[in-house]
Amino acid sequence: MSLRNFIDKAVSPWMQADGPDSDIVLSSRIRLARNLSEFAFPVIASKQQSEKALEHIKTRIKDQSYHTLGKFEWIQMDELEPIEKRVLVEKHLISPYLDKDSKYSAVLINESESVSIMVNEEDHLRIQCLFPGFQLNEALTLANGIDDWIEEKFNYAFDETRGYLTSCPTNVGTGLRASVMVHLPALMITQRMNRIAPAINQFGLAVRGIYGEGSEALGNVFQISNQITLGKSEEDIVEDLRGVVMQLINQEKAARKDLLKMSKVQLEDRVYRSYGILANSRIIHSKEAAKCLSDVRLGIDLELIDELPKTILNELMVLTQPGFLQHYFRESLTPDERDIRRATLIRERIQLENSDQSTD
């Protein structure tokens, strides 16, 4: 398969689209946790109970359509190869938890891969909507619509006082996790993020890496999400997150402006050194690749580089992950082999872009 065809098939269509404030906000996500009242929650269910819950959900939702999203594809997790499951994690379509505990689990995914519904994760259902750029309200509207559609088919575990009941106490209430993925290179270069992150935590929000709790913030990409789900409405949770993210956007823009004003030559040198590494390296570790991609994306956003599309960061953040590397090269790779193949794939991607431009 050619690299262009692989990119078109491997990278989620929603990820290749543009969105508001996409120079800083890479994506917006809404996730709703729901459980069925008549079944034991997945974290305490026996194998037989988990299997029954899975079949109950499957018979009522498989091959169903929701408005313009079309039909959802039902993917049974125990029918996938380990690499295939890892690819779904790297595309943010399933959680690492579902990958590890997948005997009686499944996921439903729409054609554009902007919506996934995990079955028998920590909760019976986890509805996830992904949008490019800063579109939290749009994601919430879609998630609520899908939630209402699913609720017509099932009896949710709900308490009039506590709200939606979930496996993890921190999700009780609305069951809502709202998050944005933000690229903050200037705040990191100027070391302002060191004092901003603790302040964000004081607002009841969490600052995490690209794969959520316990993951590392590679390439200056952070996930900002709510921690409180009880005692607030969904709209209030989203509005609180929106307010903080707007401040982050303004702070990042100010830091970028300061870098251009005070250290433009040094910034250009940093950007083009990273570009040179990506375009010419024969071996590159994931951390170095993420750092260089972050620098190049910053150069693109500040119009220091005009020969690459800004979606290249989104693409290569996914394509250079271990699962995708092995999926693309169609073989199991050791860590050292992945570093070599990662460099190869990045070089090929940059060369592909240059060849596309030369034929325009």
Automatic annotation (TrEMBL):
Reactions the enzyme catalyzes: L-arginyl-[protein] + ATP = N(omega)-phospho-L-arginyl-[protein] + ADP + H(+)
Residue span(s) of domain Phosphagen kinase C-terminal: 24-255
EC number, as in UniProt: 2.7.14.1
Coiled-coil intervals, chain numbering: none
PANTHER family linked to this entry: ARGININE KINASE 1-RELATED, ARGININE OR CREATINE KINASE
Family, similarity comment: Belongs to the ATP:guanido phosphotransferase family.
Name of the protein described by the UniProt record: Protein-arginine kinase
Upper lineage: Bacteria, Bacillati, Bacillota, Bacilli, Bacillales
Gene: mcsB
